[in-house]
Specification:
Oligomer: single chain
Mean pLDDT: 77
Low-confidence stretches: 163-173, 316-321
Number of helices: 13
CATH class of the largest domain: Alpha Beta
Distance between the termini: 54 Å
Largest sheet: 10 strands, mixed
Structural class: alpha/beta
Order of helices and strands: EHEHEHEEHEEEHEHHEHHHHHH
Strand content: 15-25%
Shape: globular
Number of strands: 10
């Protein structure tokens, strides 16, 4: 096959990252694959990050900077999508405090076959700043594995690859910056990030993309380097983003129920969502927060019915959705509003 030479659009939201945005930009500039455009969206950053972006745009015509009033991460990504060139073939998303792995574009694009897949899926190289250590996530599928049509959705949801919200403690699966999305897919189905979603907006976007994708390829390429502090545990995320996270899980169960998926793909997805919701809420109970508002968000009769179907399922080969007897009892108690008793059993 002829070497791939199409334009790659790289969208990078920028906010309060004056200390890291140079590293991020340089990681793209150093790529051996050179046919790309970088769209830096300064989301009203109060520091010097926007000025740093402007300086780079003056040096390289491939770099475009857009300044906007602070509107949030999703809005910044949507602004980037609205400003990619007409000739764009694939889109990548990168955070300005992370960086693209060495030679990542060339390695990812080497997997493209004659059909050029809707999604190229890599893995994450995680760098723990506290311990100064790196760990590369693994994927269950060998490099070069193709999935097509309904097999994509059944596989992703039944194996739980998409059912975990992105947190610093997350392992396995994949996340937004490790994927190349075909621009045609985004444009055809008008894929956007939900601006009202404070957390888990990437899960919604990936869910929507997978629902429409016709073919995907797994590459095992560490596409980007994710910097994190292992001392920043999930508790602070539960404090700030708990309600938004629940909304993300609810959205996923909604689209899965509507899709033409296998019974067990739907069951596994709902099960993973329920486990995720429980983990956020139980953390909050332990910290003595008043989470009645979250309970009201969660308490949707149709959703509860789905969760109960998981709690009492006898299907044994669901990879992530199985709950122990104690967990099942705790889940029922939680649904009844008996938070503290549920926590003690979990």
């Amino acid at each position: 096959m002829e070497e791939f030479k199409q334009l790659i659009s790289i969208i990078i939201p920028v906010f309060k990252t004056e200390k890291t945005v140079k590293r991020c930009i340089e990681s793209v500039l150093s790529q051996s694959y050179e046919n790309w455009e970088m769209i830096l969206v300064d989301d009203g950053s109060p520091d010097n990050a926007g000025t740093i972006c402007d300086d780079y745009s003056k040096k390289d015509a491939r770099i475009k900077v857009i300044h906007q009033k602070n509107s949030g991460l999703s809005s910044a990504r949507n602004t980037g999508l609205n400003n990619i060139r007409e000739s764009s073939f694939y889109v990548a998303f990168l955070d300005s405090d992370d960086e693209m792995s060495e030679d990542a574009l060339k390695k990812m694009l080497s997997f493209i076959n004659s059909s050029s897949p809707d999604m190229l899926i890599g893995v994450v190289n995680r760098f723990d700043m506290l311990n100064n250590t790196c760990r590369i996530d693994h994927c269950d599928f060998p490099a070069g594995t193709n999935l097509y049509g309904s097999d994509i959705r059944n596989t992703f949801f039944e194996m739980g690859l998409l059912c975990k919200i992105e947190t610093h403690l997350r392992t396995g699966g994949f996340c937004l910056p490790s994927i190349l999305f075909k621009t045609e897919l985004i444009r055809t189905y008008n894929l956007k990030f939900e601006t009202k979603q404070l957390f888990g907006e990437d899960v919604r976007f990936c869910s929507d993309a997978l629902m429409h994708a016709n073919d995907v390829i797994f590459t095992q390429v560490p596409f980007f380097k994710y910097y994190y502090d292992s001392s920043a545990v999930s508790i602070k995320y539960a404090d700030k983003y708990g309600p938004s996270t629940i909304q993300a899980y609810k959205y996923q169960t909604k689209i899965v129920k509507k899709a033409h998926l296998s019974k067990y793909a739907k069951l596994a997805c709902i099960g993973n969502c329920w486990v995720g919701i429980r983990s956020f809420i139980l953390v909050s109970i332990n910290r003595n927060h008043a989470w009645n508002k979250i309970y009201k968000i969660l308490y949707d009769p149709a959703l509860i019915k789905c969760f109960l179907s998981v709690i009492f399922t006898k299907k044994r080969n669901l990879r992530y959705a199985q709950l122990s007897q104690k967990q099942k009892i705790a889940s029922v108690l939680f649904l009844l509003g008996m938070y503290k008793t549920a926590y003690k059993l979990s």
